[in-house]
Design a protein that fits this description.
This protein has 327 residues and is mainly α. It has nine helices and no strands. 26% of the residues are buried.
């Protein structure tokens, strides 16, 4: 990602191609580090189970102290790995933000004669200042983020099945409906977000173009802008309704998983088929499923939004690289 970027180099058609083009050599180390972090997720669960069981069995406290020390070590190792992962992938993302800004700035400088209108300059300024930020930042976690969250989900689910298949079956039963309603509601939000991004670009073009007007009736333009603003409001409210309804249903699903696990686990403990530590670790594991699943949902939403943003940037950059003014 050097400062001198050739203006003849255009952006690829897909955001993931851009990710590989700009940060491919960093993505493999990020994925390896991510897998390590996701595998470490089950260690605290197993240590919790052993700690509770050893206390119930009245074992020597020195063994409990040893497990507490191991728990602290596991927490430090996992936390340190996450720290390195987060810093590394944000460095990759910020490097791409810087590269995009340099590329657009270079294009603006080299095509200033052909793009001298206030409208074009407004779009260029918007791209440099704001629009590249979310796109470039997405690059850092574009491959490691889904691997991390999916890895945590798989490792925790596998551990839960290992602890008790009956409790795992109940938890999976209440988790499966999310695989149906989450994609449906997410798709509805994505449609609204795509329209919103395009409307905001149109509104920006209209406002910058309006500033250039020195005379004439601007009533039609103001009316069109007002209609866009109202539609953006309705789209945003639609997204909020879907988003918070989805959060409500996901939280309800989690609580049903916990209730079902406690009911089945308590019966198994009373029948002396399971130790209490297994129930404690299992309920803790359900809590650890919620965050990665929610993060995975957010990732795919962000991926969709950033693909739209990248498409707008790509069209503007490629048109300018060809000596054209973006529409």
């Amino acid at each position: 990602m050097e400062a001198a970027t050739s203006v003849t180099v255009t952006l690829p058609s897909n955001i993931y191609r851009y990710v590989w083009q700009e940060s491919g050599r960093h993505q493999l180390p990020l994925v390896v580090l991510t897998i390590c972090v996701s595998l470490l997720e089950v260690v605290p669960l197993e240590l919790q189970r052993r700690l509770v069981d050893d206390v119930v069995k009245d074992r020597d406290y020195s063994f409990v102290a040893l497990l507490c020390g191991l728990y602290l070590g596991a927490a430090l190792l996992q936390g340190g790995a996450k720290l390195v992962l987060n810093i590394y992938r944000n460095w990759v993302g910020e490097s791409c933000v810087r590269e995009l800004r340099r590329r657009i700035h270079s294009l603006v400088s080299d095509t200033s004669a052909a793009s001298s209108s206030l409208e074009a300059e407004g779009i260029q300024a918007s791209m440099i200042v704001a629009e590249v930020e979310p796109v470039g930042s997405f690059v850092g976690g574009s491959m490691s983020e889904p691997v991390l969250q999916a890895g945590i989900l798989c490792s925790v689910l596998a551990y839960m099945i290992h602890v008790d298949t009956r409790m795992a079956a109940v938890a999976i039963f209440f988790f499966v409906p999310q695989l149906v309603f989450v994609p449906m509601m997410q798709h509805a939000m994505n449609r609204r977000t795509r329209v919103r991004v395009r409307l905001l670009r149109q509104l920006s073009i209209s406002i910058v173009g309006g500033v250039a007007e020195l005379e004439g009736d601007s009533t039609d333009r103001d009316s069109a802008d007002g209609a866009r603003i109202d539609r953006i409001f309705r789209l945003n409210m639609g997204v909020y309704k879907f988003k918070f309804s989805m959060n409500f249903l996901m939280n309800l699903s989690t609580q049903l998983q916990i209730i079902g696990a406690l009911a089945v686990g308590a019966w198994a403990v009373l029948q002396q088929e399971l130790e209490i530590g297994g129930v404690v670790a299992f309920v803790s594991g359900i809590g650890r499923l919620t965050d990665p699943w929610g993060d995975l949902v957010n990732y795919f939403r962000d991926a969709n939004v950033n693909q739209v943003r990248f498409g707008l940037l790509r069209d503007a950059v490629n048109q300018q690289a060809a000596g054209m003014v973006p529409a």
